[in-house]
Amino acid sequence: MHKLLIRPLARNDIKNIWRYTYKNWGEQQADNYTELLDLAIHEVLENPEMGISIEHIRKGYRLYHFKHHFVIYHLTSTVIDIVRVLGESMNIEHHLLK
Q1: pTM
Q2: pLDDT by residue (tens digit) across 61-98?
Q3: CATH no. for residue 12?
Q4: Member of which family (predicted)?
Q5: CB 3.0-4.6 Å disulfide test: which of 4, 10, 62, 71 passes with 51?
């Protein structure tokens, strides 16, 4: 099994998702959504190839669409490195090439 790393930017993305959801739909919904997001990240850990390749943006990177967000990760032979969790309306290329 791969080792899971979650980068600080991705952790910050998840915190911001929680805050946005809390502001708009309350604490219970924010907790529920981020728990489901955590489960989605662990699904990627169980099946690393499930995400779509985005090699055209960055070599070795993949994208997994979960509800209204994209879990973006770098896949190596030993590590799944979660680099960002971005809203589906965000410009992925812009955020990955900064």
Answers
A1: 0.90
A2: 999 999 999 999 999 999 999 999 999 888 887 777 76
A3: 3.30.2310.20
A4: Belongs to the RelE toxin family.
A5: 62
